Amino acid sequence: MTISPQSTGLTIMVIDDSSTIRRSAEIFLTQAGYHVVLADDGFDALAKINDHHPALVFCDILMPRLDGYQTCALIKKSARFHATPVLMLSSKDGLFDRARGAMVGASAYLTKPFSKDSLLAAVREHTADKA
């Protein structure tokens, strides 16, 4: 495996109840030199976030137990992680979903299925000051 020149070692968290989406994101991000932490729902993510201090969080919207909007709101209410960019992931691309994401503090909205290029471009855009 070759690591690309823009390797930063930043930690990226991917929260999604789909193992396919988590695995795809993990492959794309790892190949680009990022450390990846996976969570299969909001509760799992909240249990892991303190240990890993991600520079950026990708969060699915439709998840069991704690949905993406609730998860994002809880991350943003945390004194420790309020400045961490949270990018919503969803197969729905409606104006309402984007607005609701913005209301809970999401930095951006990525539609699934995402491409490697769109995922990495979103990471670079939202972590430019951390690299």
TrEMBL record:
Alphabetically ordered keywords of this record: Phosphoprotein, Two-component regulatory system
Keyword Phosphoprotein among UniProt keywords: yes
This protein's record includes keyword Phosphoprotein: yes
Alphabetized PROSITE patterns for the sequence: RESPONSE_REGULATORY
Residue ranges occupied by any Response regulatory domain in the UniProt entry: 11-127
Residues that bear 4-aspartylphosphate: 60
The protein, known as: Response regulator
Organism whose genome encodes this protein: Massilia phyllostachyos
